[in-house]
C-alpha cells in the first residue's frame, strides 16, 4: 500500500518534536481559557489504586472508554474498542485471535480484568480479546506501564479493566445483526449473524442480570478455490448471569460466565482425494465468582472509613484443536482473595492477599496419551499501598510479595506521584518494578498446529521476567468559548517511558527444527536483556456535536545485542472522528489506525519485506429512532487492507492483517 513514511531522526530531536507538539496547543489554549465552554464531566475510576477516585484525582494515569462509545463501536467483542486508547497496539495472533501490546510488552504482560478480577487463568498467558464480549459495559479502564505491585504477575506492561453496568431497573433488550464480507463471501455461506439479549430483574432487594450473545461468522475467501481459506467459520456463545444483593447483611455479588467457541477452517485438500482438510478448534470456558463485603463503609471516627471484601473464584478452560491429530488441553484455576481499605481525608491504605492454584494437562485424542502430564503450581501473594495527599502533591507507595511453588520468592515496589502544576496542568510520574513467572503453557504446552503451518513449543528452562519501568505523564485540559470554531473541551497528554527488562520471555524461530519438519517452529526462550523506550502523545477536541482525537506512539524495543524485538511497531498513529446529530439521536464514528516499521525476525523472513506498514479504517453509525427502537450500520476495514496470502511461501514479511472488508446492519428493541 502507499502510505506516508516517518523519517529517522535522533532521540533528542524526536523528544524535542514531541515536546513542541504537546506544549504549543497547551500554551495557545491556556490564553483562551474560558470556564463557560462545554462542561467537562468527571468520571470515577478504580483501576489505578483499586479504590474509587475521580479521574482527575488518580495518582496513576488512567485512560477510559465509556459504555456509550463501546456500544457504538462494537456489539461483539472488545477488540475493536481498544483502538480508541492511545498507546495500545491491537494485534492478530496465528489462531484468529486478538492480543494487545503496551509500551513494548506483548499480551502476556498485559493483564485483562473483568470487574477487577483476571479474566483467564495465568496458565492461559495472553488474553484473547476476541473471546471477551462487549456486553453490558459501563466503561473500560486502561493503565499503561508497570502494575505488578497492585495486580501481580502478568501486569508488567499494563492493565485493561472491563467494568460492567449493575442493574438499576427492570428491562429487556434484544438486538439482531447481519453482515457480509463484500466480494469475498464463501459460496453458500454469504451471511453472518449475531443476536444478543440483555435482561435485568430486580426483586425483593436482589438484582439479577442475564446477558446472552450468539455469533456465527461465516469467514471469507479471496478466490473460488475454497479448499484453503484465510478465515473460516467461527461460532461463539457468551452467557453471563449475575446476581447482586445482601446475604446476612453483607454486600453479595455472584457471577457466572460461560463461553464456547467453534472454529472450522479449510486448510487444503487431501492428496489424491476430493476431500478438504479442516483445522478445527472447540473451546468451552466457565468462570464462577462470589464476592462478600461490607455494604456501607463504616465510619470509625470523623473523616475516616473502612471497607473490606473477600472473593472466591473457580475457572476452567477446555480446548480441543487440530486437524489430522486432535488434542485436548484442560486448564483450571482456583483462587481466594481479600482486600482491606482504610482511608481518611488525606491518607488511604489498601492491603490485600490472595492464594491461587493453576493446573494444566494435554492429551492426544488419537493415541490417548498425555502430551503434557498433569501439572500444577500454587502461589501466595500479598500487597499493600499507601496514598498520601499534601496540598497539591499526591504520593503513592506500594509493594507486593509472592511465593511461588516453582520459582520461589519475588517482590516488587512502586512509587508514583501526581503534582498539580496548575488547575489545568497535572504531572504524574512513577517508577516501578515488575515481574512475571513463566506460565504453565509457556513451560509445558505444545501448540501443534501443523495444519496451519506452525508449531510453538514450551520450554521448562524458562526464567522469570523482571523489569524496572519509569513513566512520566503530563496532562492538560481546558475548555473555551473564545474561538472561531465555537466552544469546545480540549485535552492533551504526553507520556514518556523507559523500561529495563531481564529475561523477557518471547518466541524464537528454530531454523533447524523448521527445516527438518517443514513448518514454522517457534520455541519459548528468554531474552537476557532488553530495553523499551518511547512516547505516546494524545490530543482530543470535544465540541457540542462532534469530537476528534489524534494519538501518536513511538517505540524503540531492543535486546541486549541491540537488535529490534520482533512484532513491535516503531510508529503508530490513531485518528478518531465522532459526529452526532442530536435532533435525530444519531451517532457516527470513523476510526483510522496506521502502523509502520514493524520489527520482524530476519531468520524467518529471509527474503525481506513485502509490506511493512498497514492502514485500517472503520466506520460505525447508530441511531435511536425512539425510546424502544434503534438501528446500526458499520463497515470494518473500509479499504480492504489485507495480507498477501503468498507472503509466507515467499518468505517475505507482510505487516498487513488477515482481514477483509465487512459490512453489517443491525436492529435493536428495548421493552
Secondary structure blueprint with pairings:
Elements: H1 11-31, E1 44-45, E2 53-54, E3 63-66, H2 67-73, E4 88-92, E5 98-102, E6 110-114, E7 117-118, E8 137-144, H3 148-151, E9 158-164, E10 171-180, E11 192-203, E12 206-217, E13 233-247, E14 250-269, E15 276-294, E16 305-322, E17 326-343, E18 347-364, E19 370-390, E20 393-404, E21 408-420, E22 425-436, H4 440-444, E23 446-449, E24 454-457, E25 465-480, E26 488-509, H5 511-517, E27 520-542, E28 546-559, E29 569-581, E30 586-598, E31 609-611, E32 613-624, E33 629-636, E34 653-654, E35 662-670
Parallel strand pairs: 6-9, 24-27, 31-34
Antiparallel strand pairs: 1-2, 3-8, 4-5, 6-7, 8-9, 10-11, 10-35, 11-12, 12-13, 13-14, 14-15, 15-16, 16-17, 17-18, 18-19, 19-20, 20-21, 21-22, 22-25, 23-24, 25-26, 26-27, 27-28, 28-29, 29-30, 30-32, 32-33, 33-35
Write up what this structure looks like.
This protein is 7% helix and 57% strand. The protein is built from 5 helices and 35 strands. The chain has helices at residues 11-31, 67-73, 148-151, 440-444, 511-517, and strands at 44-45, 53-54, 63-66, 88-92, 98-102, 110-114, 117-118, 137-144, 158-164, 171-180, 192-203, 206-217, 233-247, 250-269, 276-294, 305-322, 326-343, 347-364, 370-390, 393-404, 408-420, 425-436, 446-449, 454-457, 465-480, 488-509, 520-542, 546-559, 569-581, 586-598, 609-611, 613-624, 629-636, 653-654, 662-670. It has a 22-stranded antiparallel barrel. A hairpin with a 4-residue loop joins strand 21 (408-420) and strand 22. The longest helix has 21 residues, at 11-31.
